[in-house]
Amino acid sequence: MSFLRLLSRNRLALAGLIVMSVVVLLALLTPILPLPDPDVTNTAERFKKPFSERALLGTDHLGRDLASRLMWGTRLSLAVGFAAAVAAATIGAAIGVIAGFYGGRVDNVIMRGVDMLMGFPYILLALAIVAALGPGLLNALIAVAAVNIPFFARNIRGVTVGIAHKEFVDAARLCGMSNARIIITEVVPNVVPVIVIAMSTTIGWMILETAGLSFLGLGSQPPQADLGSMLGEARSALITNPHTSVVPGAMILVIVMAINLLGDGVRDALDPRLKSGALSRPMPTTMVRRTDPVPQPEGDGILSLRNLQTQFHVKDRIYKAVGGVDLSVRPGECLGIIGESGSGKSVTALSIMGLVASPPGVITGGAVHYKGEDLIGAPYETLRHLRGDRVAYIFQDPLATLHPLYTVGAQLIEAIQSHHRTSTSEARARAIELLKSVRIPNAEARVDNYPHEMSGGMRQRVGIAMALANDPEVIIADEPTTALDVTVQAQILALLDDLRRERGLAIIFITHDFGVVAQLCDRVAVMYAGRIVEEGPTDAILNAPAHPYTARLMACVPELGQGRRQLAAIPGLPPVVDKLPAGCAFADRCPKAASACRSGDIDLGPFGPARKIRCIDPEIPVQEATA
Amino acid sequence: MTGYIVKRLISAVPVLLGISVIVFLIMAMIPGDPATAILGSYATPENVEKLNRDLGLDKPLVQRYFIWLGNMLQGDFGRSFSLNRAVLDEVLERFNATLLLAGTSFVICSILGVAAGVVSAARQYGLADKAITFAVLLGISIPSFFLGMMMILIFAVNLRWFPVSGMWPIYGARDLSALISHLTLPAIALAVVATGVIARLSRSAMLEVLRQDFIRTARAKGVHERSVIWRHGLRAAMVSIIPVLGIQAGFVLSGAVYIEMVFQWPGVGRMLVDAILKRDILLVQGGVVFVAACYVLFNIAVDVAQSLLDPRIKA
Ligand code: SF4
Q: Final residue of a domain: which of A487, A521, A536?
């Protein structure tokens, strides 16, 4: 079973499992082990030290053998903790299933009560119950179980609500099954794993809590002793004979720690997010692992990518998101990168400043030259100084990309102060100026708004203002207008166009929309499966697409500027980038695919004076390459 | 803001009533005749009857509840027979000591726990992360009463850095330095478990936040990594950390009972244990209701803090 495999891969959990097994085994074997009677007092033998003759762990204040008391106490503590866990889980699950299954009023009343109980300080409630029932181990067990019921009830209710609306439950109902039968045959089997996980995370607590009540003298009563009451009785001799305290205390620690290790292991093994590594925190810059020689700068671009390769390493799989991209942009120029989602265009954009989430992202080859300096593998401080100052980003969804808990003003001020030593009041004045420059009305008041208080279009203007904060030379815009409606989109595009003409900005514009490309970009590169398949002046390509993919892509767009998410209309799906076919990646979807297309790598070759293409059978003859 | 606070206070009324009902019902579960339980089995029938009348136990359950509630609202929590003192006076006095202990612990565990969680997340899988994760595991597995006893043994008995127990020196001045030296060990012992829990949840809250798009934006702006973590990351993570702090406050407040026993701290928890062993029901009842009510009010303060921190919560 893969679950056991996962568990065994987690060495700490395995250690917990082993320790726990040994303890449980010893506890089970206690009655047949050759141990002295744990309750026989012998005052002549009081407080013998550990490792003394005939008493491995010494004796306590009444001369009772500590090793024997420890074993019996462990047995009792485990039994009581386990019983409390089972009782709490059973009753709590029953309540949760009923509340979740029946819903409505029943649910309301039950959950109100549960919330009320959860609002109690936990141990206080247990104390109140023991106070009512009177001290005693069974009563302590009841108290600990009772205070844990709400936790199970709430968890199980959540799961049941999910199940109660599944088709198979509806189907069972239509078949005329009674509610009780549906619960037993359909709901309970699905709920049991959740109960087991919840138990594995709480049983340690329950052992601790029952031991705690015994420690207070409210649990097991003499001469019977669990670990807690052993510790409680030893307390008066703590200073003179600490070993009588250390022995039971250490045992509780070992047991609870082993259970916690095991519980964590179980939870981790069952949490799908941990399996996929999705809970990793991205590092400040993308990891770089280049083996091939780093390409030298060439050409007159302010920013140029040379054979850039970025991969995602997830477990043993490698996804080649960007498989060798060459691009270059000059000051005042706008370069469009177009492609379907998953074509690697965003990853290309993020790789430039080392912003690809890493792990799992790794840049495995190539270079990004900014004014001749390679940014890939540049030290963090170098990158940080360039980020937002010389090369700025505009992202797609400004609701997710602006910090929700700071005002837009504070975020603009921060952008400025990250690169310039200015007073906050100066920076604030500049922030207002920036908001005006992106045509936000009433900027003096808007500066104190939170992102959620603005419309989508306004937020995206803030995103642009933030990118402009330090007068950068290059702006990388990653689908900045996708989430906006057509009118706002046109306004934003016009704004970007003005800015580029006024300030001589170089813009790299990522999009999947040919309409946007036509409005804004001087040149365009079409990406497919992590590589550029066609590149050239926008007009030439729009008038006469040469790559079969470009041609299909354009055919899907009904009208310029109106195209939204039309790309899926090409039959077939883009290849998964962890198993790219040999030869042309588009071959499976290309109507013109021939055997030559699949036999070897196809280069991005020149096509006419200003264009490049990666195809052996273009849609148009070379002579028509210029329009 | 005031409107929000008032609204939360009003919504607390049914919760407080619910708590009083729960406590009342638990106490009504007492098997047998409570008066006999209080007076012991040698009590004369006349005494039992008198006590029953005094406690109002001859009336129906519902009526008894409302009498009890009405008296409480007038500040009359009844009289403790074992201490021969008004319950409220005793509870208030004891609660001060508990509040001092639990409050100090709460401050310690909040600051240390959040800081450890953030560092752990920021250095995920690094040495610091592994060390913190192990320390946290140890912290949440050790029984606080055992930890307290070991701390006494090491720091009070062997090293003599702190007094063994109590809140004040038996002889000598009751000044701040005396209080601090008496408070240090119990406050730390009480804070350890909660620190572990808070560190754990802060770590995962931070990991969750650090994957968000706005963190990438901050990095793209050229914000220094230190600010990315502590300013952008922690601020956003606090939204999910604060409720955890609220829950842990409850654990610290009620878990104080163990520490009060170990360190002979004159708090409400020790009072409750004594009262339970002496079957002083009114004292238990009063103490539990009082502490639970304070905790409800504290949770309102947590909600208010949350709404101050997150402008998306409409006040
Ligand atoms: S290389 Fe062949 S398969 Fe690929 S696009 Fe050109 S014609 Fe189609």
A: A536
B99 — contact with chain A (CB < 8 Å)?
A: no
A608 C-alpha vs ligand 1 centroid, how far in Å? 18
Torsion of CA A31, A35, A36, A37, to 10 degrees: -20
User: Is the confidence metric ipTM above 0.95 for this complex?
Assistant: no
Chain A CB contacts of B215 below 8 Å = 282
DSSP three-state, residue A474: strand
- Measure CA of the first residue to CA of the last residue in chain A; give whole Å: 63
Could you tell me if A267 and A398 lie in one domain?
no
**pLDDT range class, residue A568, cuts 50, 70, 90:** very low
Distance from CA of B129 to the nearest CA of A (A): 12
Q: Band of the pLDDT at A627, cuts 50, 70, 90?
A: low
Rounded Cα gap, residues A58 and A48, in angstroms: 5
Reported as a single tens digit per residue, the pLDDT across B172-210 is: 778 888 888 889 999 999 999 999 999 999 998 999 899
User: The domain that contains A434 carries what CATH number?
Assistant: 3.40.50.300
pLDDT at res. B315: 47
3-class SS string, B258-292: HHHHHCCCCCHHHHHHHHHHCCCHHHHHHHHHHHH
- Interval B210-219: pLDDT, tens: 988 999 999 9
Query: Poorest-confidence range of A11-20, A527-536, A569-578, B61-70?
Result: A569-578
Give the Cα separation of A525 and A541 in Å (integer). Answer: 9
* Closest ligand 1 atom to A547 CA: 5
- Shared domain for A440 and A522, answered yes or no, is yes
B54-82 mean pLDDT: 81
Domain count within chain A: 2
User: How many Å lie between the centroid of ligand 1 and the Cα of residue A564?
Assistant: 26
Nearest to B291 by CA among A127, A147, A149, A113: A127
User: What residues make up the domain containing A411?
Assistant: 333-350+383-536
**Of A518, A536, A554, the domain-final residue:** A536
Could you identify the residue written with the tokens 């520490």? B259
Q: Residues A63-81: pLDDT tens digits?
A: 778 888 888 889 999 999 9
For residues A249 and B90, the answer to whether their CB atoms sit within 8 Å is no
Phi-psi region of A575 (alpha: psi -120 to 50; beta: other; left: phi over 0): beta
Do residues A295 and A470 make contact, with C-beta atoms less than 8 angstroms apart? no
